[in-house]
Amino acid sequence: MSSPGLQLPTTALDTELWHTQLEVSKLIMDAALSGTNVITATSGTATVASADDTNDAGKAIRQQTSGALTADLTVDLPAKSRLWILTNGNSGAFTTTFKVGASTLVVSQGRTVAAYSDGTTLTPIGDFTIAAGSILTTMLADLAVTTAKLAAGAVTTAKIADANVTQVKLDPAAITAIVNTALAAGPITAGYVSPPQAFGSCTLTHGLGSMPTIIRMEFVCISADLNYSVNDRVPSNSGLWANSTQIGAAISGSPYAIADKSSGNVVNLNKPSWNIVLTAFK
To answer: What is the C-alpha separation between 91 and 117, in angstroms, rounded?
Structure first.
């Protein structure tokens, strides 16, 4: 017998049986390449029969369960070396497991999985169904995507290799941080953003290792003032300075004036209502 259960005629013997044996073998080969066996059991263990030289349920490449489960279901497949296509067509709050010997494979409802059996171990080799929300961690190979739409909630962690995406739409509410590693090859290679400082002169270590090429100072509103709301920012470079190790602001104790947010008139701000944030890039 061959692995699929085909009867191999004996040379110079079985001369009257060859026609029958070849007809059965043809049916077995058809089933092994494209046949489907539907398993209607809804609990316990369903054994898929497979006898040699017989076109039975175990010869079909696709084994598909069907029906609403009343308990966990185990499908016991023939201990043969072959490829299987396993489809879970069940419903209900129970598990469907396919097994060969002691080797088991759980297939989720609504999914189809390709698996190889060596007669002892059942090994999945591919999943033909990718349901919405099923990808949690993924890597897209180089140049694999030029235009991509990722549905809300579908991806929680993603690595997209360099140069893979030329156009992408992401829900702004879903983004917590963006790190652009491409900056390392461009004019900006490092940056520093200071913690908020009380309004007044300050000196901070930026840690960039050399003189920054871009420096910036912003006044950050921490309580309403001059029609500005909390977290509003006003840029100002007056008194800003930097060297190879430090960045600072030289602000005197005198009144400091900025434009009123509503009227545009230049008015002295209330210093306790503001913090200072310094940034530097190289």
So the answer is: 26
Query: What is the distance between the alpha carbons of residues 7 and 25, in angstroms, rounded to a whole number?
Result: 7
Instruction: Give the three-class secondary structure for 34.
Output: helix
In contact, 73 and 90? CB cutoff 8 Å: yes
Q: Which residue do the tokens 């309004």 mark? A: 199
To which residue do tokens 């909390």 refer? Answer: 230
pLDDT tens digits along 225-251:
999 999 999 999 889 999 999 999 998
**Is the model's pTM score more than 0.70?**
no
The token duo for 60 is: 């079909």
List, in order, residues 6 or more apart from 139 with CB less than 8 Å away: 158, 159, 160, 161
Cα angle, residue 95 at apex, residues 94 and 98 outer, rounded to 5°: 150
Number of Cβ within a 10 Å radius of residue 126: 10
| In contact, 124 and 144? CB cutoff 8 Å | no
Choose between 150 and 263: higher pLDDT: 263
Provide the pairing of β-strand 157-160 with 137-140. parallel
Report d(CA 76, CA 86) in Å as an integer: 12
Instruction: Enumerate the β-bridge partners of residue 180.
Output: none
